[in-house]
Amino acid sequence: MSAAVRIIGRFSLSSVMGAALAMSTGTAEAGDAAARHIIGFSPDGGYFAFEQYGTLDAGVSDSGWSQIDIIDTRTDQFVGGKPILVVDETEEATLTLEQARAQAAAQAAPILAQYAITSPAEQAASDKFTFPGEMVAYNDISRLEQVSQKRLAPLHGEAGISTIQLDEILAASATDCSASFGAAQQGDQLVPGEKAGKALGFRLTLQRQDGKPFKILHEDKAVPGSRNCPTSYSLSESYELTPVGRSPVIVVLVQRFSQGFEGRDRRFLAVTGQPR
């Protein structure tokens, strides 16, 4: 696994999570729970952007990294085919977190300006225990994974969504992910059946007030190697924008947990689309 995903967070959840995350006295393992920053939408809702960032744990290095995802909400694909990533994976790296974020922002600026991605994103739902704006301390990541939710109920918004449901499923994988199933929470219950050539993926379903599903927003057919054989997924938050004269646009941020170099890692995936 590359150093780009071996990150130690700066903030501890122990002071705020209380009984929900009882502290253990076991030996801590290094890991990464990246923080995220929401940039926003284009005025027509056609594009959405957010940043996730952290600090490498790579030998003597304490190097910062930043990734900015700019997504076409009509196709749910990255603008330019991939995210903007600034990272120095060498052990001699001296790139600070502030420098990495500034460099990524500079690279993203022309694209954000081209699509006028400045409209604020209105949060419609969130899981209060995901702490997405913090680089969570490494010894709290596994407990965060355990309490994270797979159902969100938007409290407001114009998309008419009562519930966002995440289900973990098996999907094709070119990477051998057999070891990750043993590490996954309740993995055998969630993904029964033949696991050869498969990895843990997910399905997002939108439900209305009557509890019946009305749209599958996302369903993995294949899991890319970049997800590093996930051990679980959960829902962090959702955002909505209703452009004037247009249908609402929804963005769901999914947390992806996987086994890193020495401990659990967390990354964010944005699923975008129109609920109608």
Q: How far from one another are the termini?
A: 40 Å
- Shape field: globular
Number of domains: 1
What proportion of the residues is helical, as a percent range?
Answer: 10-25%
CA-based gyration radius? 18 Å
What would the average pLDDT be, to the nearest integer?
A: 82
Number of distinct helices: 5
The helix/strand class is: mainly beta
Helix and strand sequence: HEEEEEEHEHEEHHEEEEE
In percent, how much strand structure appears in the residues?
A: 35-45%
Q: What low-confidence regions span 5 or more consecutive residues with pLDDT below 50?
A: 1-29, 185-191
**What spatial order of strands do you see in the largest sheet?**
1-14-13-12-7
How is the topology of this model organized?
Elements: H1 14-17, E1 32-33, E2 35-41, E3 47-55, E4 64-72, E5 77-78, E6 84-86, H2 97-114, E7 122-126, H3 141-147, E8 151-152, E9 163-172, H4 178-183, H5 187-190, E10 198-207, E11 213-219, E12 230-241, E13 249-259, E14 264-273
Parallel strand pairs: 1-14
Antiparallel strand pairs: 2-3, 3-4, 4-5, 4-6, 7-12, 8-9, 9-10, 10-11, 12-13, 13-14
Structural commentary:
The protein has helices at 14-17, 97-114, 141-147, 178-183, 187-190; strands spanning 32-33, 35-41, 47-55, 64-72, 77-78, 84-86, 122-126, 151-152, 163-172, 198-207, 213-219, 230-241, 249-259, 264-273. It is mainly beta and 276 residues long. The protein has one domain (3-273). The strands form 3 sheets. The chain has a 5-stranded mixed β-sheet. Strand 13 (249-259) and strand 14 form a beta hairpin. The longest helix is centred in the middle third of the chain and has 18 residues, at 97-114. It is globular, with a radius of gyration of 18 Å. The N and C termini lie far apart (40 Å).
